[in-house]
Amino acid sequence: MDSELSPQWRKTFYSLWIGCFITGMGFSMTMPFVSLFINELGNFSKFQLNFYSGLAFGATFVSQAIVSPLWGSLADQKGRKLMCMRASGVMACTIFITGLSQSAWMIIGMRFLQGAFSGYINNAAALIAGETPHSKSGWAMSAISTAGIAGNLVGPLLGGALSGSFGYRIPFFITGFLMFCVFLSTTFLVKERHFVPIKKEKMRPIREVMADIPNLKLIFVTFFTTLIVMASSMSISPIISLYVRQLMHNHGNIAFVAGIVAATPGLGTLIAASKVGHTMDRIGPERVLRIGLITAFILFIPMTFTHSPWSLAFWRFLLGIANAALMPAAQTVLTLNVPTEAFGRVFSINQSFQAGGAVFGSLLGSVISGLSSYPMVFAITGLTLLLNFILVVIVQPKKANSN
């Protein structure tokens, strides 16, 4: 770290990093087992179980996409720390109550409510963006993104062990308790020193703020990039275990191998995140974003034609390295091109696109694999990344060419 980053900044950063880690871990510790949890609450047909599981998964992202801009406006008035406290406090309650559920609809309702009040990672990123010198923005955004990814890696392993030993309710109780700890640490350890509150009557309309941005097309393409990057992840995730089972011809320890294949992108991202962040500060986030998109597209080609789960794991590990240049680069583009007064609203709009990408990606993967084949999901997903790359090149700032 640099002398530009004070001890208080570091305390704030590490508190938020741990908060993002626990938020990511809590999501992945509970979500993979929701369908099994629902199955214990009644005698459901296969269609009913899939339907309720899909609703429970999608409810969070639907409510998140709807409500995020409203929270973003409040963040610009009251501060991002308060939004992190709001998200962690409500999530602690809703996740704990989910563990007490007696019906599928109660789980779905809690998941919808959780999505409506979520946004810890997004607001933590906005807070750090406002507190960090621009010369360190790339590193800081990459590091914060790494926290959620690391949590997503640990979550399924911990959730699986806890569910297997103590039942499916226990991971929800533990996650709820941990989120309450995040609420306390955010309340007492995080300081937001550079935030200037904006009274509602003095707040410039978001359209007016956006109109002052020199390269507005870049901002909209960045929103689209967030949607596509999230969709590219979610289109693959639901079908990975099924594809691995097909590649293994339904023989061997499919769950174990599928777990490895699912985890390898996160491992690649963890390894590459810090290096990519420093590179972003040196050559600019726009160039890093372009490199990441075209690399990800190229890596989807061999994944489409692979015949071995281990080769699939290898290519997905490399994809994880490319992914380290995608979401953090998009967030850094926003940080460097949007006025500080609008960080909350703009980052929340970005979160809505992220939630929309999760829903779109899940539908894309399900529909394509149902109508065609699993490899076709990889092919179509790769083409969406190529389209995204072309759009980024078209709207790139002129100064990026001189880097």
TrEMBL record:
Residue ranges of every copy of the Major facilitator superfamily (MFS) profile domain listed in the record: 12-400
UniProt GO cellular component terms: plasma membrane
Keywords from the named record: Cell membrane, Membrane, Transmembrane, Transmembrane helix, Transport
Transmembrane annotation, as ranges: 12-38, 50-75, 87-108, 170-190, 211-234, 254-276, 288-307, 313-334, 374-395
Location of this chain's protein in the cell: Cell membrane
Keyword Cell cycle: no
Membrane topology, record value: Multi-pass membrane protein
GO molecular function (one): transmembrane transporter activity
Xref: InterPro entries: MFS, MFS_4, MFS_dom, MFS_trans_sf
Signal peptide interval: none
Keyword match Transport: yes
Name of the protein in its database record: MFS transporter
